[in-house]
Amino acid sequence: AAACAGIAVLFVAIGIWLSWRPESEANDEFIAAISNGEFIPFYQPVMDIESLRLRGCEVLMRWRRPNGTIVSPGQFMAYAENNGHIFDMTRHMMRVSCEEVGELYGENPDFKLSINLFAGHFQDREVVADIKSIFENSNISFQQIVVEVTERHPLEDMEQARKIMAELQALGVRIALDDVGTGHGGMAYLQKLGVDIIKIDKMFIDTISSDDNSTTIVDSMVELADNLGMGIIAEGVEQEEQIERLLELGVTAAQGYYFAKPMPANEFIEFAARTEEE
Ligand code: C2E
Ligand code: CA
Ligand code: CA
Ligand code: CA
Question: What Enzyme Commission number(s) apply to this enzyme (predicted)?
């Protein structure tokens, strides 16, 4: 019986070793990619759709593999968030943004830089210290920073999230609620968090020129934003007709493939030079 138990333990141990090993190797690779600086910012222009001038950009993370392949966040973001790697990755991305577009932002004090944070960032004050230390000595001022919090993932401790957002706002950073209307928060987030900007999800923009319900929803978001004194940005704009509808509804800021896809820094700087010239 003792021998049987011994063999059983051995099999269980091998099973655990086998199932654990590949994952830990994948994790080692991921950590190596982080320290090699493979996670980099791309920049998607945010436009003023009345004047067609550039208002700034949203920073979107990409994984640039050593072979040059560009991997989108859909492939790695959940892993990075679940393993807590996202904290290092976000810090690195903010530092690189300062290096890459700091000069452009120094020359254009009205430009805004939107950074995506995940729910976990709002449970830990470390993010306030990170933003302070990274941007304090850069050419990007706190007033130029917008921090995006998505409604897709629940914020566990609303009180704590509210405190962290208030600390950021005290610095001059603005808070945007992302993916509004698609997630958990709904009206409660708007009421409790004191956000400055709401971002209308692509889902509503997709059908805005064809579907009356979408139009009505966007219309009420605009009214809500106006009444609460918040700014509004439409995302995922791909067609001219959508811009026309948005203007009719009183939305003045938008981003989407219609204007530009997320792009590396050098292209974004060229894009800025082109739009500011016209
Ligand atoms: P999001 O914050 O809602 O970002 C908007 C997404 O829509 C981006 O996808 C962008 O490339 C895409 N998009 C913009 N305009 C259009 C359009 O006209 N048509 C279409 N089809 N798509 C458009 P991306 O870059 O793949 O990012 C996906 C999500 O990953 C983001 O959604 C965000 O939730 C997350 N993410 C990206 N970067 C970061 C980051 O640095 N930190 C965190 N925590 N999350 C990030
Ligand atoms: Ca976003
Ligand atoms: Ca969004
Ligand atoms: Ca979205």
Answer: 3.1.4.-
